[in-house]
Amino acid sequence: MKQEVLIDGRWLMPPEPMEKVLSALDELQPGQHIRFLLHREPYPLYGILKNMGYKHRTHLLATVASKS
Fold first, then answer.
1. What are the DSSP calls for the chain, one per residue?
2. What is the pLDDT of residue 1?
3. Residue 47's domain spans which residues?
């Protein structure tokens, strides 16, 4: 069993990224965690996770602005 469940929600249209995370939570086994990749902060998900009793950590990566 893998310890990490990877969900790549980048470039999916809402609410699909959140739906993928919530679905994965239903199948999460003891000792597993979810790594959720997203190109913006999922603020609504934070409250849902809190209400469900889950903890989360967020790591923001710097982005490089493109020149026009």
1. --SEEEEE-TTPPTTHHHHHHHHHHHHPPTT-EEEEE-SS--HHHHHHHHHHT-----------PPP-
2. 81
3. 4-52
